Each structure stands twice: as C-alpha cells, then as structure tokens.
Sequence to fold (127 residues):
Amino acid sequence: MTTVDAGVGARGGPRTAVAPGERGATRIADRVVAKIAAQAARERLGDQSARTASPHAAVVVHHGTVHVRLHLELDYPCDIGARCADVRRHVASRVRALVGMEVPEVAVHVERLHLTPAHGAAQGRTR
Fold:
C-alpha cells in the first residue's frame, strides 16, 4: 500500500511514503558497535581511566544480537567482581539503547590491576 504525500519530490513529482515493511534496513558496522561498547566502559570506569589504558572491545554481531568482549585495566584495591558487573550492566544497557540490538553477553577480561597511589604510599611502596 502506497500513500501519496502532498509535498513534491526531488524530480517535481509527488512524494510517496513507503510502508515500514518495505523500507530498507540500517546496518551498523561491527567496529562502530565495538567503539560504542568501549566508550560505555570508559563512561562507567570514570576518573580511573586517566591512570589506566583505555578499554578495548571486540564484538560479534549476529541476527540482531551483540556479544561483547571487553579488555580493561582496573585500579586496585577495589571489589573487582562488583566493578566488572557494574561495567557489564552499563555496557549492555548503552549498546542496547544506542544500537537497538540485544546484548545477551558482555565478557569482561581484566588485563591489569594498578595499585592506587594513596594505597601504595600507605604500604610503604614507591612504585
């Protein structure tokens, strides 16, 4: 079913509206989804990211679902499990909101722990 709009198209003829089921699809590149996931992780890690390497994300997109693998560094001491769970939830939420795909899995790999300067000094460590 095609409906005619009262406006005029680019060639001077009437514009027609295409039914949603007949429109094309928007494809978001995997690397864009990976960048969104990495940025979401940076958002959640907050001020610590100045002392650590930026999070890196790899994704697998298949039939409207995204599986994310995050590699990040954390300040220590912290509750590593709770911190990873918080990052996992935030990344899944942001990717779902911005890309419109389901995120059934966000795997977080902690590559390195950085001793916070205040904690290290309290323990008598210089480096």
Remarks:
- Residues 80-99 form the longest helix (20 residues).
- The helical segments are 30-45, 80-99, 117-122.
- The beta strands are 3-8, 14-17, 56-62, 65-76, 102-115.
- Confidence is low (pLDDT under 50) at residues 1-7.
